[in-house]
Amino acid sequence: MVNAKGSNLPKVKRLNRSSILETIYTYGPLTRAEIADRLGLTQPTITTVIAGLIEKGIIREVENDKEEFTVTLGRKAAFVDFVPNAFYIIGMEWIFSTNYYCICNLLGEIVYRETLESYQDDYEKNLSQAIAAVKRMLREQNIPDEKVLGIGVVIAGLIDSDNQIIRFGSVTGWRDKHMGEELSRATGFPVVMESQGRARATAVQLFERMRLPEIYAYYFARHGVSCIMMTHGEPMKCGNYGAGELGHMLMKEDGPLCTCGKRGCLQTLVGEMSIEKQCVDLIRQGKAPILEQLTEDRDVPGINDILKAVECGDPEVCRTVEEAARYMGISISNIINFLSPELILIEAALMNSELARRRLTEAVEEHIFPFQKEDIHLKFIPADPYHGARGACAVAVKKLFLGSP
Ligand SMILES: [Zn+2]
After folding, report:
1. How far does the centroid of ligand 1 lie from the alpha carbon of residue 31, in Å?
2. What's the pLDDT tens digit per position in 158-207?
């Protein structure tokens, strides 16, 4: 019979390994002594685990280029860090019009990326595309199966990330699609799934190595809006589908009709689809001459066309963007008044415009208490079309490599 002490040992080892890997992710490269310090573990424990990871080709020693002294016996202690290409992860994000695919290495560097046209709400066709893309990308990039940790998927909507099921696709209307199981069966790789906001927040936490406070918020807006509260490196979770959906928060009782059937939801005021729709109306009414010129060859202007028109000073387009930025600012001030996080990271293509950033900041300052201005920091993350697919990779690293729940 295995005694209690004996049966706990593998678990302790696993936990130690997992915390060491996570610490190197967040703060690395680090010396063994620094890891021991951070985790309150003994140096022999760290040395043993690191030796095992070096032998497996996951961790390597790198040059210590820190200015301050970490000198032992006249020599700087070496840093340890991940071997970037020890493993790869395939990430994908489907948005209604486009499907983004990428391959990341262990440090979250995108080593390959491609954009494919979406089959919109045809789930089966999108799934077949993904299965073929995974196989083809690995073959073309010469990546053997044993180097692949798994696949991460990000989809807009309510995602059951414990069971890898799309409970509700927000633009597609999909219900209960067991995508994780189907993709895994067809490719042979484990699959993890997550929502757009939570995956992006996880990528920043894991891959960017930013010095982040213990509690902060990640605000993400595209067609919908979410705000993820991060506490001690983890996205806050309530109930089955995570927390942080903000798009249907009521902002204006007599506002525009939302896809949910109600009026005046936040996403009808700040979502990209709604801004694009307002701009189409402006063009039709002859009120957006610069934007009209910029998009002569297209039916619908994209967010980048709209921001270009703002830069060129198209007055009505500027007004539309300013109004959206103002509502975004008000929604952020509501979060500040409710939860008071010291940092809010904001990712929205709309914020690539300086005018929009200014309006948002003004609206936030107008709606919070004056004394909060000093304590709360807003930081804009430049929007990138591959952030979702890379976020999917980060979630896969967390669940399949670090062993997070
Ligand atoms: Zn709504």
Report:
1. 50
2. 899 999 999 988 778 899 999 999 999 999 999 999 999 999 999 999 99
Is 212-380 in the same CATH topology as 86-204+387-401? yes
Helix residue ranges, H only, 188-314:
196-207, 267-270, 272-284, 289-294, 303-311
Contact 145, 162 (CB under 8 A): no
For residue 116, how far is its CA from the centre of ligand 1 (angstroms)?
29
Span 224-252, average pLDDT: 84
Ligand 1 center to 318 CA (angstroms): 25
Per CATH, the number for 212-380 is 3.30.420.40
**Phi/psi class of residue 163: alpha, beta or left (left: φ > 0; alpha: ψ in -120 to 50)?**
alpha
- Going from the Cα of 258 to the center of ligand 1, the distance in angstroms, rounded, reads 5
Ligand 1 centroid to residue 94 C-alpha, Å: 21
Q: Determine the CATH number of domain 4-82.
A: 1.10.10.10
Architecture of 86-204+387-401 per CATH?
A: 2-Layer Sandwich (3.30)
Total residues belonging to the chain: 405
The tens digit of pLDDT for each residue in 108-142 reads: 999 999 999 999 999 999 999 999 999 999 999 99
| 174 Cα to the center of ligand 1, angstroms | 17
Q: What is the sign of the dihedral through the CA atoms of 378, 384, 385 and 387?
A: negative
Q: Dihedral of CA 210/40/21/183: which sign?
A: negative
Q: Where are the domains of the chain?
A: 4-82, 86-204+387-401, 212-380
How many C-beta neighbours within 10 Å does residue 267 have?
Answer: 27
> What backbone phi and psi angles, to 5 degrees, belong to 288?
-130, 65
Collapsing DSSP states into helix, strand and coil, what is residue 399? helix
Closest of 77, 78, 19, 74 to residue 46, by C-alpha = 19
- Determine the distance separating the centroid of ligand 1 and the alpha carbon of 263, expressed in angstroms: 7
Mean pLDDT, residues 303-320: 97
Collect residues with CB below 5 Å from ion ligand 1: 248, 258, 260, 265
